[in-house]
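ok so dumb question maybe but i'm new to this and my supervisor (M.) told me to 'just get the structure for mannose-1-phosphate guanylyltransferase' and walked off. so i did the thing. is this what she meant?? sequence i used:
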Amino acid sequence: MKIYPVILSGGAGTRLWPLSRAALPKQLLPVVADKTMLQDTALRLNGRAELMQPLIVCGNEHRFLVAEQLREINVKPLGILLEPEGRNTAPAVAAAAHYLKAVDADAVMLVLPADHVISDTEAFYEAIMRAAELVEHGSLATFGIVPTAPETGYGYIKSGEPLPVGDNCFKVDRFVEKPDRATAEGFVAAGNYFWNSGMFLFRAESYLKELQQFQPAIASATFDAVSKGYRDLDFCRLNEEAFAASPSDSIDYAVMEHTRHAVVVPAAIGWNDVGSWSALWEVQQHDENGNVSRGDVYLDGVSNSLVRAESRCVAVVGLDNVVVVETNDAVLVVHKDQVQRVKQVVDHLKCQDRTEHLHHTKVYRPWGCYEGIDIGDRFQVKRITVNPGGKLSLQMHHHRAEHWIVVSGTAKVTCGDKVELLTENESTYIPIGMNHRLENPGKLPLHLIEVQSGSYLGEDDIVRFEDVYQRT
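this is what came out, is it supposed to look like this??
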């Protein structure tokens, strides 16, 4: 059996703000270990003969980050499907199923969120193989995590009668929404309830057949989105109009709660969805006082807390059960029991038309990154890094001029009809309305300081004429 992993890399991870943001969500960050959560998910699948190269589903705005992170770990994906907009998991998986059917009519899909922690990979692989036996008989398998505590932050799956095939596998009796504490304690005591992991194994054909029965609008729209999709560099863009026509729904609501073929495979695999700061505290190694710290952190009389510093010294004194997270432009302080309310902070930022929920001060681009250093009335200063071979678009600004000072590396600068090479300590001036381009022709990263001045300094004041990354 060939099993095609489908890694879902959507979502903004708002409950891990301020570290996770829309432009750089938790799955693309090294939240738990040195590698990003997407990279850990992809590497978890390596070295298994039954598992093919993964198919990635992600948003358009993350496409270059996803591709670069996979390149860094030498994983060549089967494809990267670009969602024009988020429509929840049922359409995302349906698009992947249509895509895989064109590759392999008998394709079996292993659906995995990109942002989960699984500490016991051998047990995980064993669970996949148990589920594969059920899929051979037409089942749609979901992985139920053996609960270790009466968690109220997870949905549950109640198992029904045992199956005649598969070791310790069951029909699904019902799916249960996140319970209160007393109900969760009853579930754990009963022994036949499992955490709903959001991971699945089924044939692409089987999923689409059930989807056609229960949510034909999703099946039809996603078929059109794939069949009318088109290549863009190394990506496959789903047709925008067709995908937008799909209803937004989860796999559970669209299919798994209705199908007669749902089965649950219990799995004790050290799983955590890292859906909050308290969950992140749980999966990391604690010191003798129960603390998890990262960065330039000083603790005195602190216990059972998570303290993370990204850019400066953070000192915490005499507190218990708190989360403190510092970034360049935001600081979060919250009791560990109240971390679910972090989402309300993000909602507040949205309502105030602020940007701290959208992106960090360092913003990644396919050619490198830039970081805001200072901003004031009619001026802005950025630190820019261009990767070797990186090339910004040929562009023009209506409202700002720019000064570029090379700190290290070599810059190839086009300004109007003039093309010149600049090296360390050299500078140039880009007038308002002048066509210009910045390139790094060297083998080392190019670092420069950009000083913008003018009446409007927004990122949307860019008119692109040529772009090797085909951005619009």
